[in-house]
Amino acid sequence: MAFDERLLSGVRVMVAVVEAGSFTAAARALGLTDSAVSRAIARLESRVGARLFDRTTRFLRLTDEGARFHASVAPMLAGITEAAEALAGTTRAVTGRLRVDVDAHFARAVLAPHLSEFLDRHPELQLELLVREVPDDLVREGLDLAIRFGPPASSSMVTRLLAETRVLTVASPGYLARHGRPAHPAELARYRCIHFNDPRSGRPFEWEFHRDGEILSVAVGGGLTTMDAGTMLAACLAGAGIAQTLAMGVEPLLASGALIELFPDWPDERYPLQALYPSGRHVPAKVRALLDFCQRLLAAHPA
Q1: Cα dihedral value 129, 131, 132, 136, nearest 10
Q2: What is the pTM of this model?
Q3: If you placed Cys at 248, which of 119, 221, 254, 303 could pair as Cys (CB 3.0 to 4.6 Å)?
Q4: What is the pLDDT of the chain when averaged over all its residues?
């Protein structure tokens, strides 16, 4: 016998009649009319090919066939209800495993120092952070969430803007002492610059400078290219050249004087930090909890 949704609907009405003791009481419990309950039972009896109830205007009882059928299906219906309630509970409770594809720079500079606080708040959560240079397909990889800098790569994902951070051009005091400080971005062609590869295209990011609506593109030279933000910063600190980096996470280096911002009068280039997840409907509580936590961290972050 092929299954269709009307069979399950009919079973639900039958169980309600048995539990309520009458068609009228079952109709009230289900929010239906008496005639709708009667039609549902008649369709179910036709579907299974057996009479399920003996009934008169004052009497109702299960037939032998009806009693056997009820004994079989009532536990199944209860199991479906319990499973649905348990699943609904997972969207309200911060439990289970949360797999997140997270940008390495954001993970190191902002998230990791506060993970103890997040895990203390949610002791029943197992958090798995995948720190990779190239973002992957969330659904195919079984990921719940991605947190990435830059425009989203997939329009099929729900995107939530978490923050925007400035793009800075920086150098170490040692490099500037040896080579001098450029007075204008256009002078960078004469300096050694550290290129940073876009993981998605495999090509270095172009250097741009933004101010009051003006966008200045500059061709820069240099003998070093990397696609790891930590390596780029370490090389820049060691005097290997001038670098462009995100302000988020380098504030202590600027405050201590280990790095110097070269063009504070070109302050308007910004880069977005995005959260991506598969669907905006029924977002699990564990995903909402991490997103809200990151949003609070970023709201208090100076960059």
Answers
A1: 20
A2: 0.66
A3: 303
A4: 86
